[in-house]
Amino acid sequence: MASSFSDAVKRLLVGRPFRSEDRRAPALKKRIAMPVFASDMLSSVAYAPDEILLALSLTSLVALTVAPWIGVAVGAVILVIVACYRINVKAYPSGGGDYEVASKNLGPRAGLVVAAALLVDYVLTLAVSMTVFAAYITTAFPVLAPYRVPVAIIGILLITLAGLRGSRATPVLLAVPTYLFLGAVFLTMCVGLLRVGAGDLPQAETADYTVAHTGINDEATLGLATVLIVLRAFSSGSVALAGVQTVATAVPAFKKPRGKNAGNTLLLSGLLAALMLTGLTYLASVTGVKYVDDPHLYLMRPDGSAVSAEYEQEPVLAQLAHAIFDNAPVMFYLVVLVAALVLIVAANTAVEGFPGLASRLARDGFLPRQLATKGDRLTFSNGILLLAFAAILLVIATQASATT
User: Fold this and answer.
1) Could you give the CA distance from residue 269 to residue 265 in angstroms, rounded to a whole number?
2) How many angstroms separate the CA atoms of 347 and 313, rounded?
3) Labelling 45: which of 55, 78, 97, 124 has CA 20 to 30 A away?
4) pTM
5) Residue 303 belongs to some domain of the structure
6) CATH (domain of 84)
7) 397 backbone dihedrals φ, ψ, rounded to 5°
């Protein structure tokens, strides 16, 4: 009886088993593959500007013109990395990605190091994407702010369930939020730049706020600290590089010629990510956006008093949408909700990538063989569940804070 009940629940949640021929997914065209596999890289601009401003806030440089130049530098690095990966996907079109490249050229030990780093990266991708997803959801619906951790966990569970079901319609459905996100970000950038050019400079809600001084009075020490913090801002902003390897591991899913199509997808995605990051960091600078860690300690109101402990800091993209579309509040909600949607798509890349890499390692004898076994829906269900468990632990440990 208990077995029948558990089977009924499993069928309700996951669905009926697939036959092997049911999972022969068709090769994807570039216009579908790009938003699906590059969503991790593209969606990173929803939080990369936050990381840049967060690092710069340590020396009260938020209001200066440093942030746009860091955005340009990170964008340049994105293009360099993309150029390197284009060579890799053409030379290794089997989809092994960095693990295959390192193993064949540097030996199995180097391959294992790379694989371990990628597995950790996939866990972080899922945890961070759902953490930022919760931040955007609570920005749109402030009443949910006290429940940010449950919102992030629910997001992970929904993504996990979708991964376990393994629907063949998923690629087309996942492409839509990515295109909507691209449209929302570029619309925000275009309207913002037009308003700046017209002299109708929009100001962020935090423009009149100040960031508490670091307390460093010695000029030499402050100068050295500034250099180090600018470098830290650059490294923090490099989260925009996240997801470049996802396309490399998905080469077999492209239409022929697979290597060429994957390389062109990488190039287009890199250009879009670099352009969006540069544009958003510039607009954040000119609109006076402030973004700090522990706002109640370091963010000061115009009268010099610190904000309250209940103050909820909006992501940079949300602050920009508030300022730029100040006469059209509905656009603010559109941008915020679309950003939340694309983070779900980005999280799905981890659900696709982690189990696939884990199964490959299991077949090579480096992980338990259970991770190479497919479930009823012909997905690597054990790997998906392991990924979800690790991501949930991270979300709970950090209390759904991407900056912890």
Assistant:
1) 6
2) 23
3) 97
4) 0.87
5) no
6) 1.20.1740.10
7) -65, -35
Q: Give the number of other Cβ atoms within 10 Å of residue 183's Cβ.
A: 13
How many domains does one find in the chain?
Answer: 1
Task: From 23, 43, 47, select the one nearest 35 (Cα to Cα).
Answer: 43
Q: Tokens in use for 403?
A: 């900056």
Structure tokens at 377: 């829906």
Nearest-angstrom CA–CA distance, 315 and 135: 7
21 occurs within a structural domain:
no
Strand partners for 306: 300
Tell me the pLDDT tens digit for each residue of 160-206.
988 887 765 567 777 889 999 999 999 999 999 999 999 887 888 88
Q: Return the H-helix or E-strand segment holding 358.
A: helix 329-363
Question: Residue 376, Cβ neighbours under 10 Å: how many?
Answer: 15
Flag whether 341 is in a domain. yes
d(CA 373, CA 388): 17
Q: Which residue do the tokens 């809600």 mark?
A: 205
4: burial class by Cβ within 10 Å (0-12, 13-18, 19+)? exposed
